[in-house]
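Consider the record:
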Amino acid sequence: MAGKLTNTVSPVTSSLSRLQSLNGLFAVYKKQGPTSADVLNALKEALLIEAGVQNPNPRKRKKQSLKMGHGGTLDSAASGVLVVGVGNGTKMLSTMLTGSKKYVAVGELGKATDTLDATGSVILEKDFEHITRPDVEAKLKAFTGDIMQVPPLYSALKKDGQRLSVLLKKGHKVEAKPARPVTVYNLTLLEFKPPLFTLDIECGGGFYVRSLVDDLGKALSSCAHVKELTRTKQGQFTLQEHALREEQWTLKHILQSLQCCSEEELGVDQPKPPETET
């Protein structure tokens, strides 16, 4: 006896179709350790597994079953808000790079590193006992507003199609990029317990917190590097209200937090700003 034909759609096909139909922006929490690309791939893999895809390969670019990207690279050592675009929402990621961002940075006086953060090798040590809280607060004024800043050598910026950080790790000689204009909307000293100090920073696109801390150390007749860094806000997304933790990387939670893009926004070709890293 012939089997009965039905028009029902399998749960796997249905879940995957729903996932692929998403268009918009949302935010996830990036922990210390993985790169921003690692976080995106882990997110895609979790969603594809939930949708019932067998042996998903989120790193495979050709014939991707899920279109997704992130806006604004965070260093592997940094944590915080990472904005993700899904579907046509990826067209809006460049706008997120130019928007306002907020960071909390812990700097350490007396030691400079080649990467300008705690992941690098110490290349210089200087006294810092002469530095007081009023000294730091006074110097911060020079780094507020529209300023010129030299990006770090270890960064996501590229030369001949390759990231400067990759070229350096391969042993190639890399020249510093020229200073470029950046904007700092607010810069506050939250805590001062030498050799550590904590800054609250609100800035625009293309800004490097590592360069700020390095420059501040020099301005104080010493040196400094970033010990810890957390991005607390990117565009409209904040760490406390919007960033989904790993246990929330599900279709249900993304649907609840997804900010859909209007047709007008999606129809506008967005200019691509310089690649940034913190």
Summary: Residues 213 and 225 are 6 Å apart (CA to CA). The chain has eight helices and 13 strands. Residues 101-233 form a domain with the Pseudouridine synthase fold (CATH 3.30.2350.10).
